[in-house]
Amino acid sequence: MNRRSFVNAAVSVAGAAAMTPLLSACGGGADRKTGANTEAGLKSALPAYVPSTSGKPEIPSVAGGPDAATDPAYLSYPSAPVTTVSGVPGKGGSYTAVTPLWGTVPPAGNAFYQAMNKALGVELTMKPTDGNNYATIVPTMTAAKKLPDWIQLPSWWNPNFNLGGLAGTQLADLTPYLSGDKIKKYPNLAAIPTGAWQVGVWGDKLYGIPCFSSKFVVAGTTFYRRDILEGRGIKADQVKSADDLLSLGKELTDAKRGVWAFGDLWTYLYTAWGAPLKWKVDNGKLVHLFETQEFLEALDWHNRLAASGYVHPDSLAGDNANATTRFYSGKVLIDGGGTGVWKLSDHQAGIAADPNYRRGAFNVFAADGKSKPVVYMGASTAILSYLNADLKPAQIEELLSVANYLAAPYGSAEYTMANFGVEGVHHTRVNGVPTFTDEGQKAVQSQTFPFLASPSAVISNPGGDIVTKDLSAWQADNVQALTKPPFWGMNISMPQAMATAEAAQAVSDTVQDCYRGKKKVSEVQEAVASWRSSSGDRLKGWMTENVLNKYGTGQ
Amino acid sequence: MTTAQPERTGAPEGLSLRHRLRRDRSLILMTVPAVVLLLVFNYLPLFGLATAFQEYDPLVGVWQSEWVGFDQFSRLLGDAMFWHAMTNTLYLSFVQLILFFPIPIALAMLLNTVLSERTRNFIQSVVYLPHFFSWVLAITIFQQMLGGAGALNQFLRQQDIGTWDIMTNPDTFALLVTSQSIWKEAGWGIIVFLAALSAINTELYEAAAADGAGRFRRMWHITLPGLRGVIVLMLVLRLGNALSVGFEQFLIQRNAVGHDAADVLDTFSFYYGIATGDYSYGAAAGLFKSVISLLLIWGANRLAHAFGDDGLYRK
What is the model's pLDDT at position B48? Predict the structure, then answer.
């Protein structure tokens, strides 16, 4: 997964709209709308929010700032799941669905799929597709105009998929079915918070069905081996500044034994110096991350860290593929990572390598140890599914009813079916919690249906309560630090040349070389200067004129 | 290359095309799959080159995308990173030519002197094997052995000797990738030379030995002249491919040594074209490379002919 772009405002490329003088010479280009949603348009497209009343989490949600809250957590599973959908949602239609899967693809047409189809009342052909190559597979489908009936398009790849361009041309407009009170026909969908629906709105119309929505979305954080650090009497809350972290590096590194304190920290740590995620607004003026002093300070610290000898040599060599292996085996004790990793399967894999394994995360801190700790929030979901524009209204309604089934709340009969399969076949109850059988591990554990629609995220790790408790406690400790970055939850369509400028490949390559100790900070400054003069300043002008001045910052 | 061969089967002059087609129909049939493969995967995609003159948007397709003439190329020629990738490519190509090219020839000649059939087969299997490894695997093996936390450096650390930075040093990257290439491909590269060696009449050696020629003189006057045609052919092909030094090998190690050292023309097209959705720019870089390669291969072929060798085809 592209970790960095995950949390940024969803940006999409809307074709060659002849933005640059260079390109305006020849005609014939397709003209597509660029910009963002208007406030009024967004309001009329969004569905009403009717929270679900079922479910009593053992660890309730803790509220933070606007649109921020911890995920509710469950330690037990209802012994008699409640049914939320009466009858069978489908009317026997035949459809194909494609979802990304990071794991082993279950056999096609397996017994679980068949059981699901029976419960859903449709012939849904599931085609889970390798998540690691998803970004290159989907564009071949869109270029041939051959999208399946239902498809999952994670928002961090919106630029790759050109989502702003697909919306309305190849993806169905759901506004007539879901906006305002119309959603009340689908109560489980209505229980998904508004912030998540916002991610699916393009050009003032609703397209996406949010999955796994959450009010605690951050790109990632700095993890540590809690078992090992606590064994040495080090507590997470002792780390309050960059200096604390550095001295921990000295204490923990034992290169002769093959143990280094740090893996790859930069991606989730640079904002601790007060650097913005990508943009900040200073006195009404847009400032890019690369222009800020804080960015250079963060780089300088990481550049010195690379030379300190506390970073694992393989991390410095950019070998990210084996980062988890190094963490499990205790060769790296502190490493940056996406928060999605903190779950039962991580716990099980870690314990297999080291029976004492326990993952922990430092509380968000400011590098100077004095400023207010800040972590920037991502939009309320990054996982959205879309329906094909070629579907007839009756078919769209049928699939929305199916989505309503799949979005049934945690612990309900429908949720149990979609996530654990049939009791006795795919799972059995062990101490009351659903536990996969061998059959279930093959067909159900690699989630497919929840990627089409699912209820708001809860923290639940049946059989691994320690993970649930640790993650809930960390979320509660850090919920106050969650801050909306500019353009939060705004879907910005931009012309190709601007998207290329925003990707700033030359700068990000140099930044990477710098925090891995191969380039000096001054060389990054040179790369930034040349980026600004070639396209960066034009990007800023475009963002100011077409987004900031027209739609504001979305905060 | 190969498709040109059936023409020279010594057909008597005066046979009409139809007669020749009839006579050679089974041979022609056998080449059809290869020709179709070439058409579908090598010639048909050539139409995609049109995107190099556009601001290509995959969603609206080639027909609807905006035509921008040579704008992508003027952007390309003004891009310092492109020229950097070009310099890297040429430098790596030169290093590989000097260090890599002679090795399969030397290996083939050495192997040719081994008399025991079993030993020969064994050595051949061993040196062929790495060719079948993927670059990912090959580089992982190098990393495990020579990397910062690899076997060698961990040993040095335990003996309190300073570590040796092999895998992440941008200055010696050209030597590193060349030695990786030698390890992986040199064995495979000997096949064509072995074939040429086996075509040399052994009686020549016997006659030379009878005339008192030593080992070195036999190599100089018989073996090398016997290999000359193949060596020149390989050299011409190598020069034509001077701008293709490989892709995965650099893609995988780009993080380790940084983009300055590792970016070659192919990775440039990938990172600054495809990865950022700037397809037309990547296509322009690719087309530029192809044109230069074509000129190089044409020049090398002319040179070979000038020296009286066959080159790619007999004149």
Answer: 87
Contacts of residue A89, Cβ cutoff 8 Å, sequence gap at least 6? A120, A121, A122, A398, A401, A402, A404, A405
Residue A308 maps to a domain: yes
The answer on A202 and A111 residing in a single domain is yes
pTM of the model: 0.82
Provide φ and ψ at A96, rounded to 5°: -120, 140
- Of the candidates B69, B149, B258, the beta carbon closest to that of A519 is on B258
User: Is the Cβ of B204 closer than 8 Å to some Cβ of chain A?
Assistant: no
pLDDT confidence of residue B3: 42
How many whole angstroms separate alpha carbon A53 and alpha carbon A137? Answer: 40
Is CATH 1.10.3720.10 what the domain over B72-306 is classified as, yes or no?
A: yes
In this complex, the residue of A23, A320, A505 whose CB is nearest that of residue B66 is A23
Residues A396 and A527 in one domain: no
The beta strands (E) that lie in A191-249 are given as 201-202, 205-206, 209-211, 221-225
| Nearest Cα residue in chain A from B164 | A313
Q: Are residues A259 and A340 in the same domain?
A: yes
Facing B277 at nearest CB: one of A13, A29, A320: A13
Least confident of A86-90, A126-130, B89-93, B206-210: B206-210
* One domain for residues A362 and A394: no
The CATH 1.10.3720.10 portion of chain B extends over 72-306
Rounded Cα–Cα distance for residues A7 and A376 (Å): 8
Of A496, A509, A513, the CB nearest to B277: A496
Helix, strand, coil distribution of chain B in percent, nearest 5: 75, 0, 25
CB contact under 8 A, B68 and A313: no
The pLDDT tens digits for A176-201 are 999 999 999 999 999 999 999 999 99
Residue among B62, B63, B66 with most chain A CBs within 10 A, to mutate: B66
**Do A370 and A385 share a domain, yes or no?**
no
Question: What is the pLDDT, as a whole number, of residue A228?
Answer: 96
Q: Which domain holds residue A519?
A: 221-376+494-551
Best residue in B53, B55, B156 to probe A by mutation, most A CBs within 10 Å? Answer: B55
**B202 burial level (CB within 10 Å; 0-12, 13-18, 19+):** exposed
Angle of CA points A93, A99, A102, to nearest 5°: 150
pLDDT of residue B13: 60
Give yes or no: residues A239 and A180 share one domain.
Answer: no
The dihedral region occupied by A417, where left means phi > 0, alpha psi between -120 and 50, and beta the remainder, is: alpha
Give tens-digit pLDDT for B127-147: 999 999 999 999 999 999 999
pLDDT in tens, A303-338: 999 999 999 999 999 888 889 999 999 999 999 998
Quote the minimal CA–CA distance from B91 to chain A in Å.
21
Nearest beta carbon to residue A28 from set B67, B71, B281:
B67
- A22 vs chain B: nearest CA distance in angstroms? 7
Contacts of B257 in chain A (CB under 8 A): 518
pLDDT at residue A1 tops 60: no
Kindly indicate whether the ipTM for this predicted assembly is greater than 0.90, answering yes or no: no
Model confidence band, residue A500 (pLDDT cutoffs 50, 70, 90): confident
Give the CATH number of the domain where residue A225 resides.
Answer: 3.40.190.10
In a domain, A29, yes or no: no
> Could you tell me the pLDDT band of residue B12, with boundaries at 50, 70 and 90?
low
Cβ-Cβ contacts under 8 Å, B53 against chain A = none
Residue A519 to chain B, least CA–CA distance (Å): 8
Q: Is residue A20 part of a domain?
A: no
- Chain A contact for B66 (CB, 8 A cutoff): yes
Domain count within chain A = 2
How many A/B residue pairs have CB atoms within 8 Å? Answer: 128
